[in-house]
Amino acid sequence: xxxxxxxxxxxxxxxRLRLLSExxxxxxxxxxxxxxxxxxxxxxxxxxxxxxxxxxxAREVGPEGSxxxxxxxxxxxxxxxxxxxxEGLRNVEFREADVQREAGAERQxxxxxxxxxxxxxxxxxxxxxxxxxxxxDGVIVIEDIDFSGSFCHPYTPAYERYVELYQxxxxxxxxxxxxxxxxxxxxxxxxxxxVRVNIVQPAFCEGPGKDVASITLQRIAxxxxxxxxxxxxxxxxxxxxxxxxxxxxxxxxxxPRIFQCSARCG
Length: 266
What we know:
By secondary structure, this protein is of the alpha/beta class. It has a single domain (about 10-265), classed as 3-Layer(aba) Sandwich (Rossmann fold). Helix content is about 45%, strand content about 25%. The chain is built from 8 helices and 10 strands. Helix 1 (about 10-35) packs across helix 3 and helix 5 packs across helix 8 (about 230-245). The longest helix is centred in the N-terminal third of the chain and has 25 residues, at about 10-35.
């Protein structure tokens, strides 16, 4: 896809996405239920990654409904299919697809996308593809970030450098790591109506949520090296600093600020 995705995928990428999905499950599941997720619906999970939300949708809509998960990473799609088979879910399908060209052929009742528009050079094209895949009066639900809103307390140099590097590498690839505040406008410009917005920001004193920063930095390391934004030695040093902060129960580490938007088609 024309998305310049900076975070490594495949099996190791799926492990990171599993952690992220576990950490975000309370806020994402509540958002989807509040926007009308119900049994019998036809749903599309765009840029589904490891398929964790896709499988949640499949359980919620039941055998009367259906769910399609799409992603450009063929390896991670294969892993998601294996998870669906292991769970015995027959109402879910995974497809390899480019979000900016093909969100899905069928008209969907609910379309969901998390943390993909911030990686697209042309997020308008991604939203318009989702509009084409939605039935009239269908619901779209998008979650994406304002990475500049990330924080750690007390001040931790390694965390501040991580936040700086993440934004720099995404911007270098032509995308917007702080797209969150733009989401309502993107939806309105595409023709969606009844746009609603909410902001959440999980933060942790202990637990696996504190590991997201160090794992994410390791997954973007090849992109940082390719762009000449940091040396391998500096990356190792930052990872050590993030792991030290995560182990300290007196340190509060937050995820980026997350904008949750929903709207209706036409």
